Amino acid sequence: EISFVQLLTIRYWLFLVFALIYSHYNVGIITAFKTSRLKFQITRSLIALAEVGVFLLGLKFLALNEAHALLAIFPLMTILLGVFFLREKIGRIAITGVLTGFLGALIILKPGEGVFSVAATLPLIAALLFAIYQVMTRFVVTVDSYPTTLLYTAVIGAFVSTIFVIPNWSQTSILNWMLIIVMGCLGVAAQWLVISALHNSA
To answer: Measured between alpha carbons, how far is 170 from 13 in angstroms, rounded to an integer?
Structure first.
């Protein structure tokens, strides 16, 4: 009943409200918009939007366990990108931990034959985009404030998704709206926690 674009847009609208309130009470919205890496912030935010959108699209063609099993490879991608672009040193313990986690995810999720289909490329693309987004965020939090990074992610995502949702908007039941809002709030929490974790580790 609801397109993945509409789900994505509602999530980013909620995220925008949260980011504006957070920025206002911490540094002020105008101050939060000040950045020395404008193009970088915009590109990073577009990648975040694309990652969520591609993954939601993948859920139309794959079972939930199969999509998440493929997405679970993103920590490996993040480590490789971090070593290459951020010159981070990764020890054997970290690599072993990531591999163990990935194998554990496969055991728990028990993906079926769908992971070998053409549609499986969507969660894999989402995993790569998420890894790129994390590496870019890890870099930008060292030069911009936390509210700035949070606000740009929300503003760019909300603006772009709104453009695409206009021809794809549809109505649904009250129950579905409630579920959509709950999913959106959980998505906001997840986005906030990712940025917070990368900011605190910088």
So the answer is: 16
